[in-house]
Amino acid sequence: MAAEQTYPDDLLYHDEHDWARLEGEEGTFGITWFAQDSLGEVVFFDPPEVGTTISKDQPYAEVESVKAVSDVVAPMSGEIVAVNEALGDEPAAVNDDPYGEGWMVRVRLTDPTERDQLLDARAYEKLVQES
Amino acid sequence: MSPSEVIGFAPGGEETVTIYERSQSGRRAFVPPPLDVPETPLSELIPASERRAEPPALPEVSEPEIVRHFNNLSKKNFDLDTGFYPLGSCTMKHNPKVNERVAALAGHARLHPAQEAKYAQGALELMFRLQGALAEVAGLPHVSLQPSAGSHGELAGLLLTRAYHDDRGDKRTKVLTPDTAHGTNPATVRMAGYEVVKVGTAEDGGVDLDDLRAKADEEVACLMLTNPNTLGLFDRNITEIARIVHEVGATLYYDGANLNAVMGISRPGDMGFDIVHYNLHKTFSQPHGGGGPGSGPIAVSDRIEPYLPRPQIVEVDSGNGAAPVYDLDFVRPKSIGRLRGFQGNFGVFVRSYAYICSLGGDGLREASDMAVLNANYLRARLAEPGLAEHLPIAFDRACMHEFVVSGTGAKRNLGVKTLDIAKRLLDHRVHPPTVYFPLLVDEAMLIEPTETEPKERLDGFVDALRAVLEEAAEDPQIAQGAPYTTPVRRLDEAGAARRPVVRQPPAGQEPPGDPDDARQVTTGKV
């Protein structure tokens, strides 16, 4: 069952509909409720390899839904330290629990100041409502 | 779940099973008369290495059961002969029945593909003349009928592009495709061994010229373009686009998916395209949908001609004023080779040739005129109050043969998505338009009415859309649960993508339950 529309306050948001949860020098990334709702049910997640360097605003992974294959954009730059292997078997976790079980990668951030360019929950929600 | 549970029941109809499930050992539809010539053992006719050890597991069914089986299946189908089918990009036009009559003539239908050229003169002449007609439509002189689908024509086009560059000692690695392109374009690029580079779309819906200029360099082998594009918009900058592409030495490829908009009006060859593919099953009225048979011939300019697939059909003057003869020319040293066995889906050629002959040049032009008029009529009607606020036109200017609306309004205002609207249209006996394509329009719905629909059908479609939207304003759950009147309801699309079961298990075996097993089935021998 798909999750209810929410945009948790403790996350930061990228306008390409990605979220970041920051914990010290690391961040966890995923896609927002709006993104999974637009995609429809996710059938495959193609993660990057651990150790890959990713750049803010650039695609780092692909998700395939019943509609299309889409790039997942990095909200911040860094190096992948973990990927959510469970999405291999249960990609629909992205739909069911986009901010929890549906997380995609954990990243060691190379430029924590990039967080200043991200949106807070209220600003992101406003963006979504206007789109 | 058993396969029959997956397939479901038709309202008021019989349970849907496959013909294999109807099989009863020993049952026959036809019993041949006793042999009245000496019998020759199979072992004398076919060497042991070529003989199968066991008979194939064919269904054993009586004639009335075969007839009922397929008759019942046909009633569960939604097809063009049943109702309106505005499936954008697919050109679901009426397929004239005279085509079927001509294709069924014994000289066409019963000709063996291995027949020697001298005994298949009529067929070769038909194909040669079809090539001539297609060349005229494209404005490019040389045609090959071999590719058997639009995607196959695309691959042929890029293999020709590669052969052309290689022959000049020019190594190129990239192919440009606009972000409005059909998904087959980038897939073809990869299959042909090139790297995909996306080109953006400008405000007016055409190619972003600045982005094109920035990305067009000496590494680029080709630009694949659909014009009019998948938004149904004619790219007014096409001559400038051709100039930019040719200036860096690349070829310009015309995806003919939308040729139905421009027949007899403008020609890809005149726009500067080097290679064109046609979809005979779309533009030239071959019944399609459900997997074929298709046909995707290509036309090319003089500089690409040496690389065309072999054999080419040639007309040879027999001298002394006698009728010309037709032959297959295999001596083409620079050819990219054969693209398939034999010459192509001949029945499609016959239907398309019949279509072209019955309409004539003026008729083809009129078909395109009507296709564009019908699309613009629908576009104007969808701009009416009650529709436009829920399904705004994505690029609101005069369109060609199709146009895109965005379901973002309906999603925001009514809580129903494009998918829900599409599913609910089925209950109104309308095949839904293409949904969620092109990708750059959110909640897209791509509508192509074609030229063969009368005004009442177009108005009926508008009424159906209006009814769906008004109902959703009252109760969105109705659309969210649709369809209700079809043989199957909402399908498990995610399950079909993740765990496709493409082969029925042999009698007595359970269908695979484990996803990994199911995926193995897809790679198994079918």
Automatic annotation (TrEMBL), chain A:
Record carries keyword GTP-binding: no
GO BP field: glycine decarboxylation via glycine cleavage system; protein lipoylation
Positions of the Lipoyl-binding domain: 26-108
Modified residues (N6-lipoyllysine): 67
Keywords: Lipoyl
Cofactor: (R)-lipoate
Gene3D superfamilies listed in its UniProt record: 2.40.50.100
PROSITE patterns named in the record: BIOTINYL_LIPOYL
A GO CC annotation given for this chain: glycine cleavage complex
Cofactor binding comment, as recorded: Binds 1 lipoyl cofactor covalently.
Name of one Pfam family that matches: GCV_H
Subunit-level organization: The glycine cleavage system is composed of four proteins: P, T, L and H.
HAMAP family to which the protein is assigned, alphabetical: GcvH
NCBIfam families reported for this sequence: gcvH, PRK01202.1
Family label: Belongs to the GcvH family.
Function field: The glycine cleavage system catalyzes the degradation of glycine. The H protein shuttles the methylamine group of glycine from the P protein to the T protein.
The protein's name in its UniProt record: Glycine cleavage system H protein
Record gene name: gcvH
From TrEMBL, chain B:
Glycine cleavage system P-protein N-terminal domain span: 44-309
Region Disordered, residue ranges: 475-526
Domain Glycine dehydrogenase C-terminal per the UniProt entry, residue ranges: 367-474
InterPro entries the UniProt entry points to: GcvPB, GDC-P_C, GDC-P_N, GDC_P, PyrdxlP-dep_Trfase, PyrdxlP-dep_Trfase_major, PyrdxlP-dep_Trfase_small
Subunit structure, interactors included: The glycine cleavage system is composed of four proteins: P, T, L and H. In this organism, the P 'protein' is a heterodimer of two subunits.
Family: Belongs to the GcvP family. C-terminal subunit subfamily.
UniProt protein name: Probable glycine dehydrogenase (decarboxylating) subunit 2
Gene behind the chain: gcvPB
